[in-house]
Amino acid sequence: MKKDFISIKDHDARTINHLIRQAYNLKAQARAGKKHELLQGESLAMIFDKPSTRTRVSFDVAMYELGGHAINITAGECGLGTRESVPDVARTLSRFCDAIMIRTFGHDTALGLAEHASVPVINGLTDLMHPCQAMADALTMYEITGDLKGVRLTYIGDANNVTNSLIHLAEKTGIELTVCTPKNYAPDKKMTAENEALLTNDPSAAVKKADFIYTDVWASMGQEKLAAQKNKAFKDYQVNGQLLKKAPKNVKIMHCLPAHRGLEITDEVIDDPVRSIVFEQAENRLHAQKAILVYLLK
């Protein structure tokens, strides 16, 4: 039976924690110059309906370093759901490649691709979920703490696909998650119904005991028309020097990038040489995705 990686929620706690440790080990091997060509000759089709920097490069390099090959397919080339149906694309790519990664808008598109593909499908991002990012975040925190159970993570900003995947990550790892948003921008109740994430509208209270503070853009890709409205609603939710005075001195700062500097986060915070671990997060997309690829294909 084939495995997919569409949502963290689809996998049990043992699997998610194994993937985090596997990513940690693969990163250590890479840093030591040890080859780990575990996917020799394997191929990954990468469908991009949304622009990408980290997703594109990290998956491409991951396959190369694992001994495999990645093939980039742009929205214009594929026309997924317009030029050609999702089931037909899924069935065709399954004949050519060993796995498929998709970065798209609607979550149903990723689900449909997984339903009709005979090879593993990875969710590189949808409007609903961003599981690969959350796995990289998990690795980043694990490197610092050595154990995610009881780690206090505070997310401040818009409840979006990253937030949803962090909620699922917390369920599987024991992370104590606080989500801080304006009143009308909280996570969907369906996302929080089965977990113990603490919801609050008070940034100062949210960061008081935080080990990690995480933020993301206020207007996600595809929401550009809402930017002015959201900038006004979130003006008191900026992660800045004043907010960090309310947090523990050793708190670490996270952001999944790209960042809108001067909006959700200030330069002084994202560039802090001690507290910011933003670019470790970015690097860890590579190592976390290697672990996912090996899990699905070996």
From TrEMBL:
Q: Which GO terms describe its cellular component?
A: cytoplasm
Residues that, per the record, bind carbamoyl phosphate: 52-55, 103, 130-133, 256-257, 285
**Pathway(s):** Amino-acid biosynthesis; L-arginine biosynthesis; L-arginine from L-ornithine and carbamoyl phosphate: step 1/3
Q: Its Gene Ontology molecular function terms?
A: amino acid binding; ornithine carbamoyltransferase activity
The answer on whether this UniProt entry bears the keyword Cytoplasm reads yes
Give the NCBIfam families listed for this entry: orni_carb_tr (TIGR00658), PRK00779.1 (NF001986)
Q: What is this protein called?
A: Ornithine carbamoyltransferase
- Organism of origin: Termititenax aidoneus
Q: Which gene encodes it?
A: argF
